[in-house]
Write a structure and sequence with these properties.
Blueprint: H1 5-33, H2 39-54, H3 61-68, H4 70-80, H5 82-101, H6 111-131, H7 139-150, H8 155-173, H9 175-195, E1 201-208, H10 211-222, E2 227-232, E3 239-248, H11 249-262, E4 267-273
Antiparallel strand pairs: 1-3, 1-4, 2-3
Helix pairs in contact: 1-5, 1-6, 2-3, 2-8, 3-5, 4-5, 4-7, 6-9, 8-9, 10-11
Length: 286
Protein backbone atom coordinates (compact mmCIF):
# COMPACT_ATOMS: atom_id res chain seq x y z
CA UNK A 1 0.00 0.00 0.00
CA UNK A 2 1.48 3.41 -0.94
CA UNK A 3 2.27 5.89 1.81
CA UNK A 4 -0.62 8.16 2.78
CA UNK A 5 -0.49 10.74 5.56
CA UNK A 6 -4.24 10.50 6.11
CA UNK A 7 -4.29 6.71 6.23
CA UNK A 8 -1.19 6.41 8.40
CA UNK A 9 -2.49 9.05 10.80
CA UNK A 10 -5.73 7.07 11.21
CA UNK A 11 -3.76 3.89 11.92
CA UNK A 12 -1.47 5.58 14.46
CA UNK A 13 -4.46 7.22 16.16
CA UNK A 14 -6.24 3.85 16.37
CA UNK A 15 -3.10 2.22 17.80
CA UNK A 16 -2.76 4.96 20.44
CA UNK A 17 -6.41 4.70 21.49
CA UNK A 18 -6.27 0.89 21.58
CA UNK A 19 -3.04 0.85 23.61
CA UNK A 20 -4.49 3.28 26.17
CA UNK A 21 -7.68 1.21 26.49
CA UNK A 22 -5.73 -2.03 26.82
CA UNK A 23 -3.34 -0.60 29.44
CA UNK A 24 -6.25 0.85 31.44
CA UNK A 25 -8.07 -2.47 31.19
CA UNK A 26 -5.04 -4.36 32.50
CA UNK A 27 -4.53 -1.98 35.42
CA UNK A 28 -8.20 -1.85 36.40
CA UNK A 29 -10.27 -4.93 35.57
CA UNK A 30 -7.52 -7.49 34.94
CA UNK A 31 -5.33 -6.72 37.97
CA UNK A 32 -8.28 -6.20 40.32
CA UNK A 33 -9.84 -9.50 39.34
CA UNK A 34 -6.55 -11.37 39.15
CA UNK A 35 -7.50 -12.49 35.64
CA UNK A 36 -5.48 -13.75 32.68
CA UNK A 37 -6.44 -12.18 29.31
CA UNK A 38 -4.84 -14.90 27.21
CA UNK A 39 -2.21 -14.74 24.51
CA UNK A 40 1.06 -12.91 25.08
CA UNK A 41 -0.60 -10.45 27.47
CA UNK A 42 -1.96 -13.22 29.67
CA UNK A 43 1.33 -15.10 29.58
CA UNK A 44 3.18 -11.90 30.52
CA UNK A 45 0.93 -11.38 33.54
CA UNK A 46 1.32 -15.05 34.55
CA UNK A 47 5.13 -14.79 34.37
CA UNK A 48 5.02 -11.55 36.40
CA UNK A 49 2.93 -13.19 39.12
CA UNK A 50 5.07 -16.34 39.22
CA UNK A 51 8.28 -14.25 39.48
CA UNK A 52 6.79 -12.10 42.24
CA UNK A 53 5.41 -15.04 44.24
CA UNK A 54 8.28 -17.52 44.01
CA UNK A 55 11.32 -15.30 43.31
CA UNK A 56 10.20 -12.06 44.96
CA UNK A 57 11.09 -10.23 41.72
CA UNK A 58 8.85 -7.58 40.17
CA UNK A 59 9.27 -7.76 36.40
CA UNK A 60 8.45 -5.00 33.92
CA UNK A 61 5.33 -5.75 31.86
CA UNK A 62 6.81 -3.95 28.83
CA UNK A 63 10.05 -5.96 28.82
CA UNK A 64 8.47 -9.39 29.34
CA UNK A 65 5.70 -8.73 26.82
CA UNK A 66 8.13 -7.57 24.13
CA UNK A 67 10.37 -10.61 24.63
CA UNK A 68 7.37 -12.95 24.31
CA UNK A 69 6.38 -11.20 21.09
CA UNK A 70 9.72 -11.74 19.34
CA UNK A 71 8.66 -14.93 17.52
CA UNK A 72 5.19 -13.60 16.58
CA UNK A 73 6.86 -10.42 15.29
CA UNK A 74 9.13 -12.55 13.10
CA UNK A 75 6.05 -14.39 11.75
CA UNK A 76 4.46 -11.02 11.04
CA UNK A 77 7.46 -9.67 9.11
CA UNK A 78 7.92 -12.95 7.20
CA UNK A 79 4.38 -13.94 6.30
CA UNK A 80 1.93 -11.08 6.90
CA UNK A 81 3.37 -7.66 6.05
CA UNK A 82 6.15 -5.27 7.09
CA UNK A 83 4.07 -2.13 7.69
CA UNK A 84 1.42 -4.23 9.42
CA UNK A 85 4.08 -5.61 11.76
CA UNK A 86 5.71 -2.22 12.38
CA UNK A 87 2.40 -0.72 13.49
CA UNK A 88 1.84 -3.82 15.63
CA UNK A 89 5.25 -3.26 17.25
CA UNK A 90 4.15 0.29 18.04
CA UNK A 91 1.03 -1.13 19.69
CA UNK A 92 3.08 -3.64 21.70
CA UNK A 93 5.59 -1.03 22.90
CA UNK A 94 2.96 1.61 23.75
CA UNK A 95 0.78 -0.87 25.62
CA UNK A 96 3.77 -2.12 27.59
CA UNK A 97 5.01 1.35 28.56
CA UNK A 98 1.53 2.60 29.49
CA UNK A 99 0.81 -0.53 31.53
CA UNK A 100 3.99 0.09 33.56
CA UNK A 101 3.25 3.82 33.97
CA UNK A 102 -0.51 3.97 34.60
CA UNK A 103 -1.34 3.31 38.28
CA UNK A 104 -3.79 0.56 39.19
CA UNK A 105 -7.35 1.69 39.89
CA UNK A 106 -10.22 -0.33 41.36
CA UNK A 107 -13.61 0.21 39.69
CA UNK A 108 -15.45 -2.78 41.18
CA UNK A 109 -14.67 -5.92 43.14
CA UNK A 110 -17.44 -7.93 41.46
CA UNK A 111 -15.46 -10.62 39.65
CA UNK A 112 -18.26 -11.41 37.18
CA UNK A 113 -18.62 -7.76 36.14
CA UNK A 114 -14.84 -7.53 35.85
CA UNK A 115 -14.74 -10.62 33.61
CA UNK A 116 -17.50 -9.43 31.28
CA UNK A 117 -16.68 -5.73 30.93
CA UNK A 118 -12.94 -6.39 30.92
CA UNK A 119 -13.46 -8.87 28.09
CA UNK A 120 -15.56 -6.35 26.15
CA UNK A 121 -12.88 -3.66 26.42
CA UNK A 122 -10.16 -6.15 25.52
CA UNK A 123 -12.07 -7.37 22.46
CA UNK A 124 -12.84 -3.82 21.37
CA UNK A 125 -9.17 -2.80 21.68
CA UNK A 126 -7.97 -5.77 19.63
CA UNK A 127 -10.65 -5.35 16.95
CA UNK A 128 -9.89 -1.61 16.70
CA UNK A 129 -6.33 -2.52 15.74
CA UNK A 130 -7.34 -5.33 13.39
CA UNK A 131 -9.84 -3.16 11.50
CA UNK A 132 -6.99 -0.70 10.83
CA UNK A 133 -4.72 -3.51 9.55
CA UNK A 134 -2.57 -3.83 12.64
CA UNK A 135 -2.72 -5.96 15.79
CA UNK A 136 -2.04 -6.01 19.51
CA UNK A 137 0.63 -8.66 18.97
CA UNK A 138 1.11 -12.13 20.41
CA UNK A 139 -1.39 -14.75 19.30
CA UNK A 140 -3.10 -12.20 17.03
CA UNK A 141 -0.16 -12.63 14.62
CA UNK A 142 -0.62 -16.39 14.72
CA UNK A 143 -4.40 -16.13 14.26
CA UNK A 144 -4.01 -13.92 11.19
CA UNK A 145 -1.29 -16.18 9.77
CA UNK A 146 -3.54 -19.25 10.16
CA UNK A 147 -6.47 -17.37 8.64
CA UNK A 148 -4.42 -16.39 5.59
CA UNK A 149 -2.65 -19.74 5.22
CA UNK A 150 -5.62 -22.03 5.90
CA UNK A 151 -8.48 -19.70 5.02
CA UNK A 152 -10.28 -20.41 8.31
CA UNK A 153 -11.66 -18.33 11.16
CA UNK A 154 -8.99 -19.13 13.75
CA UNK A 155 -10.08 -17.12 16.79
CA UNK A 156 -11.68 -20.16 18.42
CA UNK A 157 -8.40 -22.03 17.94
CA UNK A 158 -6.65 -19.28 19.89
CA UNK A 159 -9.32 -19.63 22.60
CA UNK A 160 -8.42 -23.33 22.95
CA UNK A 161 -4.74 -22.43 23.07
CA UNK A 162 -5.45 -20.07 25.97
CA UNK A 163 -6.91 -22.97 27.95
CA UNK A 164 -3.34 -24.24 28.45
CA UNK A 165 -2.38 -20.91 30.00
CA UNK A 166 -5.39 -21.06 32.32
CA UNK A 167 -4.54 -24.60 33.39
CA UNK A 168 -1.07 -23.45 34.46
CA UNK A 169 -2.55 -20.42 36.23
CA UNK A 170 -5.15 -22.59 37.95
CA UNK A 171 -2.60 -25.09 39.26
CA UNK A 172 -0.31 -22.27 40.42
CA UNK A 173 -2.66 -19.65 41.87
CA UNK A 174 -6.04 -21.34 42.32
CA UNK A 175 -8.92 -22.22 40.06
CA UNK A 176 -11.44 -19.48 40.81
CA UNK A 177 -9.55 -16.70 38.98
CA UNK A 178 -8.57 -19.06 36.17
CA UNK A 179 -12.19 -20.10 35.63
CA UNK A 180 -13.41 -16.50 35.64
CA UNK A 181 -10.72 -15.77 33.06
CA UNK A 182 -12.60 -18.11 30.72
CA UNK A 183 -15.54 -15.68 30.86
CA UNK A 184 -13.11 -12.85 30.10
CA UNK A 185 -11.54 -14.61 27.12
CA UNK A 186 -14.85 -15.90 25.76
CA UNK A 187 -16.31 -12.38 25.88
CA UNK A 188 -13.23 -11.08 24.06
CA UNK A 189 -13.64 -13.72 21.34
CA UNK A 190 -17.33 -12.93 20.82
CA UNK A 191 -16.62 -9.19 20.53
CA UNK A 192 -13.97 -9.99 17.92
CA UNK A 193 -16.46 -12.12 15.97
CA UNK A 194 -18.89 -9.19 15.90
CA UNK A 195 -16.50 -6.31 15.19
CA UNK A 196 -13.83 -7.96 13.03
CA UNK A 197 -15.11 -10.00 10.09
CA UNK A 198 -12.35 -9.81 7.50
CA UNK A 199 -11.51 -13.53 7.60
CA UNK A 200 -15.14 -14.61 7.75
CA UNK A 201 -16.88 -15.36 4.46
CA UNK A 202 -20.37 -14.88 3.07
CA UNK A 203 -21.96 -16.60 0.09
CA UNK A 204 -24.15 -14.56 -2.23
CA UNK A 205 -26.94 -16.06 -4.33
CA UNK A 206 -28.29 -13.44 -6.75
CA UNK A 207 -31.29 -14.05 -8.99
CA UNK A 208 -31.00 -11.51 -11.81
CA UNK A 209 -31.79 -10.74 -15.44
CA UNK A 210 -28.40 -9.02 -15.82
CA UNK A 211 -25.87 -11.69 -14.81
CA UNK A 212 -22.90 -10.26 -16.69
CA UNK A 213 -23.32 -6.79 -15.17
CA UNK A 214 -23.69 -8.32 -11.70
CA UNK A 215 -20.51 -10.39 -12.12
CA UNK A 216 -18.61 -7.33 -13.32
CA UNK A 217 -19.69 -5.22 -10.35
CA UNK A 218 -18.81 -8.00 -7.89
CA UNK A 219 -15.30 -8.15 -9.31
CA UNK A 220 -14.93 -4.36 -9.45
CA UNK A 221 -16.05 -4.03 -5.82
CA UNK A 222 -14.29 -6.97 -4.18
CA UNK A 223 -11.91 -8.56 -6.73
CA UNK A 224 -13.87 -11.82 -6.35
CA UNK A 225 -15.20 -13.85 -9.24
CA UNK A 226 -18.64 -15.39 -9.65
CA UNK A 227 -20.39 -18.29 -11.34
CA UNK A 228 -23.49 -17.90 -13.52
CA UNK A 229 -26.09 -20.67 -13.32
CA UNK A 230 -29.17 -20.93 -15.50
CA UNK A 231 -32.54 -21.56 -13.88
CA UNK A 232 -36.27 -21.23 -14.30
CA UNK A 233 -38.71 -19.20 -12.23
CA UNK A 234 -41.38 -21.45 -10.71
CA UNK A 235 -44.21 -18.91 -11.04
CA UNK A 236 -43.88 -17.49 -14.56
CA UNK A 237 -41.67 -20.37 -15.81
CA UNK A 238 -39.34 -17.82 -17.38
CA UNK A 239 -35.60 -18.31 -17.65
CA UNK A 240 -33.58 -16.61 -14.89
CA UNK A 241 -29.89 -16.43 -14.06
CA UNK A 242 -28.44 -17.27 -10.65
CA UNK A 243 -25.09 -15.66 -9.83
CA UNK A 244 -23.09 -17.44 -7.13
CA UNK A 245 -20.16 -15.74 -5.38
CA UNK A 246 -18.24 -15.83 -2.08
CA UNK A 247 -16.89 -12.61 -0.56
CA UNK A 248 -15.38 -11.52 2.75
CA UNK A 249 -17.94 -10.60 5.39
CA UNK A 250 -16.62 -7.06 5.70
CA UNK A 251 -17.16 -6.59 1.95
CA UNK A 252 -20.62 -8.15 1.64
CA UNK A 253 -22.68 -5.04 2.39
CA UNK A 254 -20.68 -2.97 -0.09
CA UNK A 255 -21.05 -5.68 -2.75
CA UNK A 256 -24.81 -6.01 -2.19
CA UNK A 257 -25.28 -2.24 -2.48
CA UNK A 258 -23.28 -2.22 -5.72
CA UNK A 259 -25.41 -5.07 -7.13
CA UNK A 260 -28.60 -3.19 -6.27
CA UNK A 261 -27.32 -0.21 -8.22
CA UNK A 262 -26.84 -2.17 -11.46
CA UNK A 263 -29.97 -4.29 -10.96
CA UNK A 264 -32.54 -2.82 -8.53
CA UNK A 265 -34.85 -5.80 -9.16
CA UNK A 266 -32.32 -8.50 -8.28
CA UNK A 267 -33.14 -10.99 -5.52
CA UNK A 268 -30.15 -11.48 -3.20
CA UNK A 269 -29.71 -14.14 -0.52
CA UNK A 270 -26.66 -13.77 1.77
CA UNK A 271 -25.53 -16.86 3.69
CA UNK A 272 -22.72 -17.17 6.24
CA UNK A 273 -20.01 -19.51 4.94
CA UNK A 274 -18.90 -22.05 7.54
CA UNK A 275 -15.91 -23.49 5.67
CA UNK A 276 -14.22 -22.76 2.37
CA UNK A 277 -11.69 -24.79 0.37
CA UNK A 278 -9.89 -23.62 -2.74
CA UNK A 279 -8.47 -20.36 -4.02
CA UNK A 280 -9.95 -17.23 -2.47
CA UNK A 281 -8.59 -13.73 -3.01
CA UNK A 282 -7.67 -12.02 0.26
CA UNK A 283 -7.03 -8.30 0.32
CA UNK A 284 -3.30 -7.80 1.01
CA UNK A 285 -2.22 -6.74 4.49
CA UNK A 286 -0.11 -3.60 4.92
Amino acid sequence: MPFSWKNDFKIILAVCVASVLMALNINTFVQTGGLYPGGATGLTILIQRIAEKFLDIRLSFAVVNFLLNMIPIYIGFRYIGKRFTLYSCLMIVLTGILTDLIPSYIITYDILLISIFGGIINGFSISLCLRMDTTSGGTDFIAIYLSRKKGIDSWNIILYFNVILLLVAGFTFGWDKALYSIFFQYTTTQVLHILYTRYQKKTLFIVTDNPREVCDVIYATSKHGATILKGEGSFHLNERSLVYSVVSSDESKKVVNAIREVDPYSFINTVKTQELAGLFYQRPTL
